[in-house]
């Protein structure tokens, strides 16, 4: 039986905003017209809605608004002491996972909330109590989002849930997922189990967003390295490996239609996300190692399997930066958060050329 429960909503008071903006206050103060960027650091995950891209950040803890038409950051909403992870937009609101929370002394503890920001007012309006350590949030449809929790890694191993955005009713899908993506009303993800002998085992699942039925997929696939990312894009399921964190990984592409293998591409260091570029090619986001400035983009295809491992660097004669966190495609442009380079890289996906670096510091 699926466990369905209704969590009471706690209405929060939004806190003060950044030096440039007080968009969470009742009387927002806008910067001088010549000010082009908002001051914040460590951009992380993104969601697109109503002509803007919303980016979670760690310093300050909050969410920034990037205006697609103006191609610049225009607002920042500081949201308190919770640490924002994944973000999704549905029904005129942003749903932001909070993995941990800190008190005034700087002591951290696991959080158990999804925080809700109204897009029109750009204000924090609700918090929803969920499982411990929520991480990834994806839009299922305009009335539902999917999110997972990672728990405390010992007594609480987390779970995967669907939230009804109309009444905040939460359905437990009874299948914890380490990472997942959403496509055509279904959830595709994997669960990695850490065994007592220090080995790991990984299983892949498809969960129907309406019936909540769980189906095991890719049962006969064998991977020599750990799984690091899973994406559904351009009609394919892409599964990427971690290269044991020291070597380059790869990404295998499977047809969404029948699950058949289509192509395996060599990728870069820690490939985490894959997006279709709209021209029968795919961009693999390689996270890279912390502090090494070796994040990158790999380009590959299915009918034409030519692979360019250092696609971004070849196109721009420079590297992407330090830890590429997220990538989305909007209106023919690729947007990439590069966390420790404090930037939002904007790229033409078909040429690999950078069109703008929106520095967030």
Based on helices, strands and strand pairing, what is the structural class? mainly beta
Biggest sheet: strands side by side, in what order?
Answer: 1-14-13-12-11
Q: Give the CATH topology of one domain.
A: Methylamine Dehydrogenase, Chain H
- Assign the CATH class of one domain: Mainly Beta
Main sheet makeup? 5 strands, antiparallel
CATH superfamily of one domain: YVTN repeat-like/Quinoprotein amine dehydrogenase
Q: What is the strand tally? A: 29
| Percent in strands | over 45%
- Summed over residues and divided by their number, the pLDDT gives a mean of 88
Spans where pLDDT lies below 50 across 5 or more residues: 1-36
Distance between the termini: 49 Å
State the helix count: 1
CATH architecture of one domain: 7 Propeller
C-alpha Rg (nearest Å) = 20 Å
Helix content: under 10%
Q: What is the H-and-E element order?
A: EEEEEEEEEEEEEEEEEEEEEEEEEHEEEE
Give the overall shape: globular
